[in-house]
Design brief:
13-stranded mixed beta sheet; globular; 34% strand; alpha+beta; single chain; 371 residues; six-stranded antiparallel beta sheet
Length: 371
């Protein structure tokens, strides 16, 4: 069961190498402002395709035995590491904000997330189990792109683009590079680069479909690196409306079916900024999702999100109890640090958790200031 209870149809990935567009088929020249407007005003809400993700964040790999059997338990630290490392692919079908389906194929197993109206199903062929939840009516007002593509752990190109583009301000340089081709479609290559060295991010390249403005891929390169640490995008895409039968789900014969409640998030702050797509506590650390007392330090690329003392003690304990994360987290002054190319997470000695696309020193400073 994904940590987030929204009707999020996941799928993601990384375009396995954007190719320069054909010199004989150039797109009309646009300024960075015009490409930003193209993204902001795109109206693509029905499509299907294959999404691929490649992550080279420096997270520990799962034991070989785990990779040859079945996916790790959803929500566990092993599942987080599994989804944020290596290569993954999924099929996604979307028709507006109320109909979507994602099929994630693992070795010897398949996971499906299906939304039709207010009904959402999560199915795993690993143990032939299905979970069903009914969304509250207010969910109908959600953004189509967020509902259709949003996902804990597997952000789709549109979600990644939204998060990075929200940081575009005077602290960010925006340029348009040479056109690229993604999933056979010519795209503008929108490049954003932080003007501060107080972030782990060096640059972000967003491929924007030249006809529709739909984000097709996102590549994130760490500061000082020469290749992306995270790449996500379509390898195949159709803008035709998917067959409606894809959004009807019936549990297979013999499956175990369970109805699950929608978690109450009414006490969570709704205006706290995220430190980045891979840095969201509810994506990298699902255990934090139900916790309150979130603290925020810094702005833009230097944002650090943390939890107050006592708000995440059990989450911190469970994280460090997991053998995979315990191995990856190294002792530092004031706690233990989980470090990747684009994200650092600090678990303090008193059980608080701080995350951001910033150097470890920034997390330690935020932890000290929040005492």
């Amino acid at each position: 069961m994904p940590a987030a209870a929204a009707p999020v149809m996941i799928a993601v990935g990384a375009l396995t190498g954007s190719l320069p567009a054909s010199a004989g088929d150039p797109l009309p020249a646009k300024t960075p402002a015009q490409v930003l407007e193209l993204v902001a005003t795109h109206q693509v809400h029905s499509f299907s395709g294959t999404l691929e993700q490649v992550s080279e964040l420096g997270l520990p790999e799962l034991p070989a035995a785990g990779k040859t059997s079945a996916p790790a338990s959803a929500g566990s630290a092993a599942a987080v590491i599994e989804f944020l490392s290596g290569r993954h692919s999924a099929r996604i079908y979307v028709d507006g904000k109320d109909n979507s389906r994602v099929q994630v194929v693992d070795q010897l197993a398949e996971r499906d997330v299906v939304r039709h109206g207010n009904d959402v199903w999560f199915y795993s062929s690993k143990d032939n189990t299905a979970e069903h939840l009914t969304l509250p009516a207010k969910t109908q007002d959600s953004s189509p792109s967020r509902d259709a593509q949003g996902t804990p752990g597997f952000p789709a190109p549109g979600d990644l683009a939204q998060q990075f583009l929200s940081k575009v301000d005077p602290t960010t340089a925006v340029t348009v590079g040479p056109d690229v081709v993604v999933a056979g479609r010519s795209a503008y290559n929108l490049v954003i680069e932080p003007r501060t060295d107080a972030t782990l991010v060096g640059r972000v390249a967003i491929a924007v479909d030249g006809q529709t403005g739909l984000p097709l891929s996102v590549q994130v390169t760490a500061r000082g690196a020469d290749k992306p640490a995270f790449r996500s995008g379509f390898s195949a895409l159709s803008l035709a409306t998917p067959d409606q039968s894809l959004f009807s789900f019936t549990p297979p014969p013999g499956s175990t079916v369970k109805d699950v409640p929608v978690p109450d998030k009414s006490h969570e702050p709704t205006d706290a900024p995220h430190p980045g797509p891979m840095a969201n506590p509810d994506q990298l650390l699902p255990q934090l999702e139900a916790k309150a007392h979130v603290t925020v330090a810094g702005t833009g690329w230097e944002t650090v999100v943390g939890t107050a003392a006592g708000a995440s003690g059990s989450a911190a304990t469970s994280l460090l109890a997991d053998p995979l994360l315990a191995q990856a987290a190294v002792p530092v002054s004031g706690g233990r640090l989980l470090s990747t190319a684009l994200l650092n997470v600090l678990v303090t000695d008193d059980g608080r958790i701080f995350a951001g696309m910033v150097p470890p020193e920034a997390l330690q400073a935020a932890a000290a200031a929040a005492r």
